[in-house]
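so my prof wants the structure for this chain in the tokens format not the other one, which i didnt know existed until like an hour ago. anyway here's the sequence
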Amino acid sequence: MNMSEEAITNKIQKPKWLRVKLPVGKKYTELRSVVDKYKLNTICTSGSCPNMGECWTEGTATFMILGNICTRSCGFCGVKTGRPETVDWEEPEKVARSIQLMKIKHAVITSVDRDYIKDGGSIIWAETINAIRRANPTTTLETLIPDFQGNKTNIDRLLAVAPEIISHNLETVRRLTREVRIQARYDRSLEVLKYMKDQGQRRTKSGIMLGLGETEAEVIETMQDLANANV
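here's what i got, hopefully its the right format
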């Protein structure tokens, strides 16, 4: 056996869950049909998420409001960057109706960034949450929001409609922030999270990705920063 044959024989076996299955099944087809009918965006499709088939087969999806073109260009994200199209003011009702048809008990909403408009998209955010509540009074809501450039008026607009959970992701450690999400600021994101909790938001969340070159010490530091922001 030569060295190349030995290397092949001794290569590390990848876990079975790493292989993504093609999306199939009744639930997937039903969800796909609703999304297409109402011309909705999901982070699953726009972000090229490899887990889309698994989630959609279980009847869950993360709706993405305010279009599918983002004003930011984060290095990890598959969503297109550019000037978004005109805001669709009927979108809140479309999302609410879709959640009703899918009989979703816990809905997750996120959005692209719209840094060029004064309200940062916060009006559509609030109207979407209100529309979902009217059509689906027992559905709980988790919102994954942008930083709204730290604008407290826009953040307050979202806090006023009181979704059960408000998430805002740091995405990475302080040192890698400029490389991973160039238009964002690590400390501004922490300030947004702390402000929301200070205003009485009961449940706040954040998340980071691993494997981008961060050290264990940096991860621990990030966790401490989030704890200090009462996340």
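also thought this was worth mentioning. Strands lie at 62-65, 69-70, 80-81, 106-111, 140-144, 165-167, 204-205.
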